[in-house]
User: Fold these one by one.
Assistant:
Number 1:
Amino acid sequence: MDGVGDYTRRLAVEVASRGHQCFLLSLADARISKATAGNLGSGAFVVPSLRLPATDSWRERVRQAKAFCAHVDPDWISWQIVPYGYHSRGLSFGLGKRFQEISGGRRNQIMFHEIWIGEAAQSSVKNKVVGKFQQHIILDLLQRLRPLVVHTHTPLYQHLLGNIRYPATILPLFGNIPIAAQLNPDWLKEKWPEGWGEFDLADRKSWWIFVMFGSIHPEWDPEDFWQRATEAGQRTGRKCALISIGRPGTIGERMLRQIQKRESESWHLLTLGEQSEEDISQCLLMADFGVSAAPPEYIYKSGTAVAMIEHGLQVIATRPMYHYRHCPPETVSDGMRNVRIDFHLEGMKKTQPGSLLPIVATQFIEDLSGA
């Protein structure tokens, strides 16, 4: 029940639909208190799973994980790596040794959803020090698992992994929200607050609807966003509305309240909170632009941002790009399609919605087969 969990489940079910047997293993599940076995997917594409609680000792989890792997005897183990999934500061020392024991000499593929912190010139001394320890943990992990395939989803991470002599291939992220089968033209009307006046679909072109999906980063500047979005609307005589959908987080809620104080006849905020996948998809299909609180170089590591792109939205990066001492800016910005770093929105059009999952699954299978 998190971004990487969504990614792993959906990828496994899609790969299973291509005729491969897949199994899921969660090594540090924070939402359960005892080991839980089950099945995911539906019909012929069922994926057996085992979830191990993070509260159990590593010794017990490694024992159960080894037994699971011995039982299913996989040709490949795909490690979906998020250092912070194993320790609150990403400092899970001994991770490589534990994973090596679970792997048992099988063929390994690693997908790095995150690597180490502290590479940006603006990073604090603390983050740089923590990042060096995280890098040591990741290097030890790579040396012990000796993966035949290394994937990541951003050019920045690809470059930094190459710097430690572990070349990685870009495997794009896909969104975590399936695209609704049919657009419901009344969806926005049903959610439209009474105080905004009656919503008229014929008047839709006089509005710009921005949407933020999921958590809001603590370094986001709501005042800057409000000012630049308002100015962009004024240039074309449009009224603006920001819809927040999903869980923005405690700090995010406080930031949204700052914007709410700015409400006027030409500016509105609608906070919807947690919604069903169908409602989230309808929201993204109805909006004009996505809004990201992450620096632009990290947008393609966000399942929520990619979900907005899959739904045809241009995503506005509302924070500046960081500077990296060991990575040129052109490398960092490579491949940023559907991402805007300014508010010159006039004439911009949505693209055709479409899921990246089938493309990603095909590349995943081909990269493993080729190795």
Number 2:
Amino acid sequence: MSISAIVPVWNGRELVERLLDTLDAQTFPVDELLVVDNGSTDGAPELARRRGAQVIAMGRNCGFARAVNRGIAASRSEWIAVLNSDVELAPDYLEALVDTGAWFATGKILQAGRGARDRLDGAFDALCRGATAWRVGNGREDGPAFASARAIWSAPWTAAVFRAELFRRAGVLEESFDSYLEDVDFGLRCARLGLEGQYVPGAVAWHRGSAALGRWHPDTVRHIARNQILLAARHFPRRCLVRWAWPILVAQLLWGGVAIRHGAGGAWARGVWEGLRSFSGSRKKSTVCGPELLRRILAEHEGAIRQVQSSTGFDLYWRLYFLLAGGGAK
């Protein structure tokens, strides 16, 4: 049984070196290390090459999705690990995920940095009817809510393992998403096909998070705002767009309010406009879910969001969303 590791890189030489150190220490060794360079200028790809990686040069910053897809196309193993360059892995991380035998798996990803290593970066992804997603557990202290293994439909591609066969069945990342929410889009395609993954809390990794640009950088906010609209375009049937018009409006405006509070209101508005402008074209290139199937998927997702929010303390965003949008996917 073999595994390839794909690491998209855009600068961050020191972070890449830390990740490679943790890969060298894995109890399930990587057979093939593919570093896909998005035009780094700080020596990161040269470091990776010296450490034994095959470096695939993209020539410029083509975004996360295109870089990962290039790595998938070049990989030759039964399993594929996709790893952000600002991640550090516990020594048994890859072994624990491969041992599940699931179509894909991810572990408990904690925040890196001083004083933050007992807080979650995220466990798995969940999407609401309003087409906004939550990386479940983000910012919460580690605890019982994140201690149980469970089946999932969507894994963060921060540090996840996939069967290579999955990409032949579900396709690869949607490159029009560039970066952000491309993993949620992929998860919806897996759910539509019944290809289930696993969350494995015993596998632990640490993620610095938005190391390249920053969480509220205008480009980050613009991409997220646009891609939330595109998720609805690509996956929501017309019946659901009509039935959930109010939850969609609530979710998007609430998210805009959060962006404004962080000084990124203009970037949010540009992203929404880009999403609306691309809505029709994106919809034509995709196959939407059946209404009943999507209702079941999002009912499960919203149930997970509500359960964790309730047990760990509601964020204002999700408190207002559930208050204004109502109970669940109907």
Number 3:
Amino acid sequence: MNSARKEFRDRLVKMEQKTAGLQDKYQEEIKVMFETQLTRRMKWEWIVTGILSIGFVVLFGTAAIMAPSDFPVLGRLLFGSGAVFGLAWAVLAAVILRRGSVNVTSHGKAAAGMAWCFAVLLMAAVLVLASKHPDRIVGLHMICGVVPFLIIGAVFLLQYRIQEAELKTREKLLEIELRIAELAETLEAKE
């Protein structure tokens, strides 16, 4: 780097100071970026998610308890885990509805994590059950039936990661804009 650029950079860094108004505006824009207020449509989506989740809790919990005695233990555990994941989704829906907003980072991470974990758990359990089934074709049908859930879980996870990267990029751009505005304000005041 030539000396003129280095000197200019050093002068800019020395002039940098935090302006309360710009800092508040930056924090407000960050909050708006990470918190999405629920619209009427979004409220209904989360209400339906909560109702369906409770339905899954009842359905899978009943299936785990009421399954015949010769039903595989791994199958019962799978039904039980389905009830637990349904309960987790119901809790997430209740938290979001109660807050009236979606925190894109924490709620998105929870939703993506639950979808992916359940899909992987389901796939692993079905692979074990299919390998023990006497009829290989039935086992193959079981595996093929679970693959769409694995794909859906992967889509949730990828969508969250893309959204997270986009938010980090937008946050950094806002930070740069704030610094440029502060430097411009400082330069104007000195002139």
Number 4:
Amino acid sequence: MDVDVNEQFLIYSSMDTYIRLVDLATLKAKQEILNLGRTRNQRYEFQGYRGGGGILSCKFSGDGKEIVGGDRDGEIVCYDLTQNKVSARV
């Protein structure tokens, strides 16, 4: 769980491939679910487990334009909030 630098948005994860983005000013008016999982074409088999594991932790970047998450597959995933898509996977 993290709050952006302007304290406008809160993000949290729940052991799945999604990060929830909540607008703190309105709470009910805006809650987005961001998918950091792999698409069907990107999935892979690893010891019998389908890739794209759950997000264990998440944090806003310093400028608040990206979200960085660590998943249970050992990957670090960057989500670009301006483009609304995963921008990098390490």
